[in-house]
């Protein structure tokens, strides 16, 4: 994964830093998280935030191999 430097408003960085500490993330990872949510919300404007949040969690569980199969019936 490549990285690049971007200029961000200091208020945004300060808020991300606070949230990052609270959620045990780095400031850049917190900003990436917010960007991912923003992208998903823009791509799916009819979905509620909680649904998007749960979709992100479900994907992380899948990537970690922590999902169980569900049998219908």
Automatic annotation (TrEMBL):
<dbReference type="InterPro" id="IPR021831">
    <property type="entry name" value="ParD-like"/>
</dbReference>
<dbReference type="Pfam" id="PF11903">
    <property type="entry name" value="ParD_like"/>
</dbReference>
<protein>
    <recommendedName>
        <fullName>ParD-like family protein</fullName>
    </recommendedName>
</protein>
